[in-house]
Amino acid sequence: MYHSKGNYEAFARPQKPAGVDKKSAYLVGGGLASLAAAAFLIRDGQMAGERITILEASSMDGGALDGAGDEHTGWLIRGGREMESAFECLWDLYRSIPSLEIEGASVLDEFYWLNKADPNFSLQRTTENQGADPATGKTFTLDHRGRKDIVKLVLALPEKLYDKRIDEVMSHAFFASNFWLYWRTMFAFEQWHSALEMKLYVQRFIHQIAGLPDFSTLKFTKYNQYESLTLPLVTWLLAHGVTIQHNTKVMNVEFDIAPQCKCASRIEWIKDGVVGGVDITENDLVFVTNGSLVENADWGDHKTAAKFLPEVRDGGSWHLWRNIASQDTSFGRPDKFCTSPEQTQWESATVTTLDERIPVYMEKIAKRGMRTGCVVTGGIVTAKDSSWLMSWTVNRQPHFSDQPDNQTVVWVYGLFTDVPGDYVKKSMRDCSGEEITQEWLYHMGVPKDDIKMMAASGAITRPCMMPFITAFFMPRTKGDRPEVVPEHAVNFAFIGQFAETSRDCVFTTECSVRTAMEGVYQLLNVDRGVPEVFGSIYDVRELMKSTALLRDGKKLPIPSFAKRYVKRTIIGRMLEEYGVI
Ligand SMILES: Cc1cc2nc3c(=O)[nH]c(=O)nc-3n(C[C@H](O)[C@H](O)[C@H](O)COP(=O)(O)OP(=O)(O)OC[C@H]3O[C@@H](n4cnc5c(N)ncnc54)[C@H](O)[C@@H]3O)c2cc1C
After folding, report:
1. Ligand 1: does its nearest atom lie under 6 Å from the Cβ of 55?
2. Hey, which residues does 3 pair with through a beta bridge?
3. What's the whole-number mean pLDDT along residues 439-461?
4. For ligand 1, is residue 519 a contact (CB within 6 Å)?
5. Is the beta carbon of 341 within 6 A of some atom in ligand 1?
6. Distance 540 CA to ligand 1 centre (A)
7. Integer Rg of the chain from CA
8. Which residues contact 568 (CB under 8 A, 6 or more apart)?
């Protein structure tokens, strides 16, 4: 496998890999990583779909990429997907998947046309003092020390950041800045998370710096991601003959381990309560999604709090990864990620408003109408003085294709779920949907006298507690995550958010698709480049632009001895053009 960039490889079709007609594939987990791997096996590996089986523990497809519920009990989304044009592998996949919305178009066409016609940007990024605009504007308020921290982080050797927390490498000044406020709420980083992952993020998304205060560099799907991303992909796979075996908890994958050869030999599962499995030969490829960010996610309802379920349970993804990891040191260390639930949890809530009383307040902050079919808040709005550090967003409505006209679906989340709210005086994780709505209404500026009545009858809210949502952000070192294809592996790959891939970062749809593509291309010897991670960090124009932005436009002084040289060269012209001097 190799990485490539440019149109030559992007549009090339690989030849059929030798021996593929004799091979079959089993994919453990039915999230985006496995669905993408199945699609690459078919499209690029030219494997017959009938030879592919996906083993999924639940009765649903798509894993984290969900969207469920109804108009009576409330709509459900665990999250929304901030996406961008530089998801190289994801768009390489979705260019081939037919849209379910527009006849003759691909999912990529649909997304591209939508975001061209209706570009995303927010008109108010933060609130404070119950709905007031603190006018944080587009400034990052980083002082010299804070900017130096960022530069040092980018220049650091990855191995120097192994097992380090963000607050071990960044100063107090950095944490006091607007930059950190925007950053942590957009990506859900906490100061105790991995400094290495933070470095990878800054590098990977350096071209997003301009969009941090207003999300103008982000793009969103038409509906929730189950309907807009999971369903078209599953429809395509089923049409190609792929089997999705639901209600199948994979308990273990057994391996034959020899010094130069590691071979998956059996998959053990419990399907609908019955123990079963399948023997694996060298001609059977096994793809395992090891670990899941939505493991043990629990839904509450308007009257009931969601349960916080931090225990590793039999038949879950951590249990499976532990069983696998116990067989060879190159299969990673799951306990690094699944044993600190207090540091990896947060909670979201899906609010379905039922009449016009609540949307009036949302419109004041969004500065846009709710049900125009177009961008509404244009990304999250953060109540910056909220003790839960609460953010909320309204995507294009309807957010579900069969949502009635009078309903608006809102996604709310809190990063700190164990401290009392400012209005309800209870921790978020102990709150019912109704109480979370009260706290949110308070921070939107609804008069105190109206809050209880509006939360009781103006919305249905379903909270969702996710104990492992940021498990992949825990400080880590080499070997904690298995390589996509470990050394000497013959017939298996690890895919998803806990597989080691070069340069890219986690908590993205792109990461799941990238690891899937890398796994398929390696195991089948597909002779085409996997798209290189978007290289903005190596583009001097992006570096200049972000330098100017991180200085809030303050010009960089040039030492007098260098002035003449700079002025006479293309360097000076570019520094001027990108606002640095
Ligand atoms: C709240 C939230 C917000 C997000 N925001 C963004 C964003 O803004 N932008 C972005 O690009 N991405 C975002 N993501 C991330 C993205 O959605 C995920 O990274 C991606 O969907 C993960 O896919 P996956 O297949 O790797 O893993 P998962 O979706 O976790 O899939 C794992 C699957 O394995 C199954 N499973 C578990 N154990 C077993 C077992 N023992 N046997 C069989 N099956 C098993 C699970 O049921 C699940 O279906 C967000 C995710 C969430 C939850």
Report:
1. yes
2. 530
3. 98
4. no
5. no
6. 34
7. 24
8. none
Segment 129-147, tens digit of pLDDT = 999 999 888 899 999 999 9
CA-to-CA dists, residue 10 to 32, 236, 528, angstroms: 21, 21, 9
Taking the CA of residue 510 as reference, the ligand 1 atom at the shortest distance is: 11
Kindly state the DSSP code that residue 179 receives in the 8-state scheme. H
Q: Which residue has the higher pLDDT, 352 or 567?
A: 352
User: Which residues pair with residue 483 across a beta bridge?
Assistant: 500
Confidence of residue 564 (pLDDT cuts 50, 70, 90): confident
The whole model's pTM is what? 0.98
The residue to which tokens 């290289």 are assigned: 535
Helix, strand, coil tally for the chain in percent (to 5)? 35, 20, 45
Ligand 1, pocket-test mutation among 252, 508, 511, most atoms within 8 A of CB = 508
The sign of the dihedral angle between the CA atoms of 143, 149, 152, 153 is negative
Per-residue pLDDT at 567 exceeds 90: no
Q: 33: CA distance to ligand 1 center in Å?
A: 8
372: three-class secondary structure by DSSP:
coil
For ligand 1, atom 2: residue with the closest CA: 79
- The amino acid at residue 539 is D
Whether residue 371 is predicted with pLDDT greater than 90 in this model: the reply is yes
Intra-chain end-to-end CA distance of the chain, in Å: 43
Q: Which of 85, 289, 318 to mutate to test the pocket of ligand 1 (most atoms within 8 A of CB)?
A: 289
Best residue among 61, 66, 81 to mutate for probing ligand 1's pocket (most ligand atoms within 8 Å of CB) is: 81
Peptide bond into 559 cis (omega under 30): no
- Region 507-535 average pLDDT: 97
Read off the pLDDT of residues 28-70 as tens digits, 9 standing for 90 and up: 999 999 999 999 999 999 999 999 999 999 999 999 999 999 9
Measured CA to CA, the distance from residue 99 to residue 81 in angstroms comes to 18
Task: Please state, in angstroms and rounded to a whole number, the distance separating the CA atoms of residues 367 and 499.
Answer: 41
Give the type of residue at 517.
Answer: M
Structure tokens at 4: 């490539």
What does the pLDDT read at residue 503? Answer: 83
Q: pLDDT tens, 255-272?
A: 999 999 999 999 999 999
Mean pLDDT, to the nearest integer, of 173-196?
A: 97
CA-closest residue to ligand 1 atom 5:
81
Active site residues: 82, 201
Assess whether the C-beta atom of 508 lies below 6 angstroms from ligand 1: yes
User: pLDDT value at position 261?
Assistant: 97
Does 208 contact ligand 1 (Cβ within 6 A)?
no
Contact 489, 258 (CB under 8 A): no
Q: Ligand 1 pocket, 244 CB below 6 A? A: no
Sign of CA dihedral 58, 61, 67, 70: negative
Mean pLDDT of 64-86: 97
Residue 58 CA, closest ligand 1 atom number: 47
- Alpha-carbon distance 522 to 465, whole Å? 36
